[in-house]
Amino acid sequence: MARRHPSRHGAFRLEVADQDLGASNEIVDTHFEPYVTRRPGGTGLGLSIVRRIAVAHDWDAGSEPDHKGGSVFGIDGIRNA
Prior knowledge:
single chain, 81 residues, alpha+beta, Heat Shock Protein 90, four-stranded antiparallel sheet, 1 helix, 32% strand
C-alpha cells in the first residue's frame, strides 16, 4: 500500500508499507546497502537503488517498523515541479 501526505520538510512524503514480516533485526540498519537481503534468490539491490535515486534528487529515504507488523519505507522531501 502506498501513501502520499505532507512531509516534515514542507513537501511530500511517499510511503510504501510492507505487510509481510518486515525488516529483520539483523539487517534493519543495513537494508539500504547493496546486496543486503533475507529473501532467498533476492539480489539486495532494490532499496539501495531507491536510496541512490532519493539522494540524487535531494530527498531522504528511510524505513521504520509498522505498528501493524511489517515495515514502512518512505521517501521524504518530494516537491512539486
